[in-house]
Amino acid sequence: MSLADRLAAAQRDRSAGPDSTRHALNTPLRRERRATDPFATLKRAVHQELLNSLGPKLYDSRLTQSDLEQKVRQTLQEVLAQDNTPLTGADRARLAQEIADDILGYGPLEPYLRDPDITEVMVNGFDSIFVERSGRIHQVEGTFTDEAHLRRTIDKIVARVGRRVDESSPMVDARLPDGSRVNAIIPPLAIDGSLLTVRKFSADPYLVEDLVGFGTMSRDVANFLESCVRGRLNILVSGGTGAGKTTTLNVLSSFIPADERVITIEDAAELQLHQEHVLRLESRPPNIEGKGEVKIRDLVRNALRMRPDRIVVGEIRDAAALDMLQAMNTGHDGSICTVHANTPRDVLSRVETMVLMAGVDLPMRAIREQVAAAIDLIVHQARFKDGTRHITHITEVVGMEGDVITLQDVFLFDHSPGFDESGRALGTLKSTGLRPKFVEKLATSGVTVDPTVFSFEMFGR
Prior knowledge:
Structural class: alpha/beta
CATH topology of the largest domain: Rossmann fold
CATH superfamily of the largest domain: P-loop containing nucleotide triphosphate hydrolases
CATH class of the largest domain: Alpha Beta
Low-confidence stretches: 13-35
CATH architecture of the largest domain: 3-Layer(aba) Sandwich
Largest sheet: 9 strands, mixed
Helix content: 25-40%
Distance between the termini: 75 Å
Strand order of the largest sheet: 9-8-10-11-7-12-13-14-15
Shape: globular
Number of domains: 3
Number of strands: 15
Strand content: 15-25%
Oligomer: single chain
């Protein structure tokens, strides 16, 4: 079919109204009620003609990204100029932008990936996209054309980082070039169609001043945590999904002195450290034959042979916990990791459980002694119902009393002020008045802490 024939078919589809282009499958009612794009057929026709015109030029390695973008947009305008169908200037511009986004980027996701105020993009199906803005989730108008369009976009994302997603491997973690984290899961595991989640990371990562401004921590707490990092304490950052653990880990890592050799280990490289001496390692999933997998645990063990001053692990979620504890207990002080947990006490339980996953026959007391000796500080973070993220506990791991690891809260979030009219939390992180025992350890590293930061602050109204 010629371009003229395809454009004529697109015009007939638009004249017939949106019901003529509804998805024919027995999709849920919420999808049937969504208005379809009246330009869908026209976009497909122009898109295909653009691909036919450019051909292998789209994959010419000699073309820079800017040259490719210029060539695509020039050819796109030429193809659209052949369309005699009356279109408004706004419709023509929107059509050109959407087709360019599809070829050069990630299609309907591009406007949301470009929006600096959006922190997460959630695709719940080809015709259902939600975004997180200011900590709150909203549905947006953008949609993919169909399931195949969504799958092509997922394939484009994961292929750029050497990953794959298919029926034999229907789940994948990947990242965009800017470091944004991507998770995709496809049928048969996703029953109603492919699902995609993109957690965006700012091109200009948050600094400690930003977290103080957001209310995540106070200036005194920021200075205290900086002293803890410079004093080479082993720190675990804990919290639930979306609590801001990675952002806080990034800020804590920025306190590492510039003359130290830092090795970062992650499933999908996200950390953005600005020190000059940073080595980044990333795990690898198995190939299609089930071979070639490299786990976080393997990378931790290898990192110990690379003469690290610091080891920063994006997240500990399995038997790598044992190797991380061994590293912390064998002279590699100053390590920082994140762990999913509900409370600081739960952090210890999770670490114990993950150590047992290593399959090493160790008595529980021996594991707990390792944990108590290795970890100095737990920074726990939570996401509140108003969408804001706050550090709620800064807890010292004191040691062992019998068979129990003892903890001591140095700072706690005071919830007693409640919430304002808009649902925003009014509480703040306050000192408990207890002076941590590791202050002496900091002093041996030449780091002093202002004792007034531990002055008791009255809790409650």
